[in-house]
Specification:
Number of strands: 3
Low-confidence stretches: none
Order of helices and strands: EHEEH
Distance between the termini: 10 Å
Helix content: 25-40%
Shape: globular
Structural class: alpha+beta
Number of helices: 2
Strand order of the largest sheet: 1-3-2
Largest sheet: 3 strands, antiparallel
Strand content: 25-35%
Mean pLDDT: 92
């Protein structure tokens, strides 16, 4: 489940801080970050891993969206 993409590591940390405090269900999963080069420069992706199934990831993302957060399920 991708939670966001940010232009700096500092923004990534801020991007993790808010949802991890606001949405308790996130705590059951492991945060993962990745840096990649995009046409606009470095992008730092924040996602969650540790789901038993695609359906579990989709359920969590639906819950987050219902609570006002942004997310999507990435194909691995």
């Amino acid at each position: 489940v991708q939670l966001g993409a940010y232009g700096t590591p500092q923004l990534l940390q801020a991007g993790w801080s808010k949802p991890s405090k606001r949405h308790v269900a996130i705590g059951r999963y492991t945060p993962a970050t990745a840096r990649f080069q995009a046409p606009i420069g470095n992008v730092y992706r924040l996602s969650l891993k540790g789901f038993a199934s695609d359906a579990e990831a989709r359920r969590l993302c639906s819950q987050l969206k219902a609570a006002g957060a942004a997310c999507f399920v990435r194909n691995v």
